[in-house]
Amino acid sequence: MSTARTGLAAALLAASVVIGLSGCFNPVDAVQQGVEDAVEGAVEGATGGDVQIGGDLPEGFPTEVPLVDGEIVAAAGTGDGWVVTIRTDAADPVGDAVAALEAAGYVEDPEMAAIQVEGAALRSNGTWNVLVAGDTGGVAYTVTPVQ
Questions:
Q1: Sign (positive/negative) of CA torsion 23, 27, 32, 38?
Q2: Which end of the chain, N or C, is more open, meaning fewer C-beta atoms within 10 Å of its C-beta?
Q3: Could you give the CA distance from residue 90 to residue 93 in angstroms, rounded to a whole number?
Q4: What is the spatial distance between Cα 120 and Cα 50, in angstroms, rounded to a whole number?
Q5: Which of 9-18, 28-37, 95-104 is least confident?
Q6: Beta bridge mates, 142
Q7: Cβ-contact 44, 60 below 8 angstroms
Q8: What does the DSSP 8-state code read for residue 79?
Q9: Which residues contact 58 (CB under 8 A, 6 or more apart)?
Q10: Model's pTM, two decimal places?
Q11: How many domains in the chain?
């Protein structure tokens, strides 16, 4: 597995852990901040990229990628790609994300059309590949340049 893929996988795992923890527990703010800082440090160390738990998009995130409305709970970028996780109240976050991508000119790769994974979709605009995956609580975007 390439370093970029390993880094993105680590970032996605960290984002999933943060969403799971924030949804299942209501820790004291200081404890939550300590956990977020530890996750950020671990992922940054593993990927060499910038990681944000909550708040802003990572540096260099492509403006051509439309995102669903909601709260950014985790974001990471390695320079070779980005992962952004958004908590949203939308009834169908993945469907909304796909609709926004398609409205912006992203299309499904015909070679990948036969592969259907519930709760996930891959779209491309010729410059960026965007994998969206999620459930009723939110959606994660993995954005990589088209090779």
A1: negative
A2: C
A3: 5
A4: 25
A5: 28-37
A6: 83, 131
A7: no
A8: S
A9: 49, 50, 51, 52, 75, 76, 77, 82, 84
A10: 0.66
A11: 1
Contact 80, 145 (CB under 8 A): yes
SS3 18: helix
Q: Decide if 63 contacts 91 (C-beta within 8 A).
A: no
- In the block, tokens 């990229």 appear at 49
Measuring CA to CA, which residue among 81, 85, 16, 8 is closest to residue 46? Answer: 8
Return the structure tokens found at 117: 């994974």
Q: Are 76 and 70 in contact (CB under 8 A)?
A: no
End-to-end CA, the chain:
16
User: Where are the strands (E) in the chain, listed by range?
Assistant: 50-52, 71-77, 82-87, 120-124, 128-135, 138-145
Query: Pick from 126, 84, 135: which is nearest to 105 by CA?
Result: 126
Q: Specify whether the CB–CB gap between 35 and 21 falls below 8 A.
A: yes
What are the pLDDT digits (tens) for 82-141? Answer: 999 999 999 999 999 999 999 999 999 887 777 778 899 999 999 999 999 999 889 999
Q: What share of the chain is helix, strand, coil (3-state, %, to 5)?
A: 35, 25, 40
Task: Domain of residue 78: give its range.
Answer: 3-145
